[in-house]
Amino acid sequence: DADGAVRLVAFDGAGVPVVSVDELRLQKMSREQLGAAVAGGDPLYEVRWVDVPVPAAPSGTPGAGLPPDVVVAHVEPGGDVRTSVADVLETVQDFLAASTDDESSRLAVVTRGGIAGTLPDPATAAVWGLLRSAQTEHPGRIVVVDVPAEDASAGAETQSELLAALASGEPQLVVQGGKLSAPRLMAVSVETAPTASTWNPDGTVLITGASGALGQLVARHVVAEYGVRHLLLVSRRGAEGSEELAAELTGAGASVAFAACDVADRESLAAALAAVPDDHPLTAVIHAAGVLDDGVVTALTPDRVDTVMRPKVDGARHLHELTRDADLAA
């Protein structure tokens, strides 16, 4: 209407209405209002793995095999990230294309020892990310299970664990020591919330993707909240178009240097890092570079996935390798 109110009606995939709102009005919220809304609460959340009940084996069917409508795919740890994701993407697309007339069939993707530990396997983590997105688009069709690394990929023990996982109804599970764990989003209490670390004000903070909206936001934040006084802002454009940001950060007391660099190019990134002055050594790295090429899982291609992963995955690997000997606070 003239006051900006709208009526909202939502339907499910079968065209059945699931919710209706007679009048919805949107209004701007100031920083002060937002701060007051979260004051005293728990605005931070984290994913925690919690135990879920292990379903009892069906009576009278000891050693029963997997249901015929379950397709199983295995992903080995330690693989190349881009190759692993491309392979699983093909598996998911083939499964969905072959089962368009059978909505009851399920794809179970089994990974080994790559998720719930203190140091997840990068390729496995990337595969899980792809599968989580696929699960939201095709609910009830895809299950992903991480089993202990020592389990044989086709062994009887893994099959029994997979049967239990499928019977649990959980879309994502970790199997360890006969227990099933599922991810839950849980509030971080004030007592356990991480506190802001102290960064060396004489050190240089590197921010990749600095010409993007996220990179600029992070640059302002670390200067205002962490007292950072030396920034190396890296992007493919370098300083071009960032004059206003540079003036703002300089006005806030920071010294700003720009570097035109493709973080997926190891030599280019190494050259940018070599320019960090000795009297202001590198003390923190924030990897905000990225490329968007969104699409539903059935429309993705290896080339589209590669476009997204090149700056994010290759860039992260290069940053890790080139700064592993630096004394970094973050």
Task: Summarize the topology.
Layout: E1 6-11, E2 17-24, H1 31-38, E3 45-52, E4 70-75, H2 81-98, E5 106-112, H3 122-137, E6 142-147, H4 156-168, E7 172-176, E8 179-187, E9 204-208, H5 213-226, E10 230-235, H6 243-251, E11 255-260, H7 266-274, E12 282-287, H8 302-323
Parallel strand pairs: 4-5, 5-6, 6-7, 9-10, 9-12, 10-11
Antiparallel strand pairs: 1-2, 3-8, 7-8
Task: Kindly describe this structure.
By secondary structure, this protein is an alpha/beta fold. It has three domains: 5-36, no CATH class; 46-55 and 65-187, Rossmann fold; 204-323, NAD(P)-binding Rossmann-like Domain (Rossmann fold), CATH 3.40.50.720. 33% of the residues lie in helices and 24% in strands. It has eight helices and twelve strands. It has a six-stranded mixed β-sheet with strand order 3-8-7-6-5-4, with helices on both faces. The protein has a four-stranded parallel β-sheet with strand order 11-10-9-12, with helices on both faces. Strands 1-2 form a two-stranded antiparallel ribbon. Helix 2 runs parallel beside helix 3 (122-137) and helix 2 packs antiparallel against helix 8 (302-323). The longest helix is centred in the C-terminal third of the chain and has 22 residues, at 302-323. The protein is globular. The model has no long low-confidence stretch (mean pLDDT 85).
What features would you highlight for this structure?
alpha/beta; 6-stranded mixed beta sheet; 12 strands; 4-stranded parallel beta sheet; single chain; 330 residues; globular; Rossmann fold; 3 domains
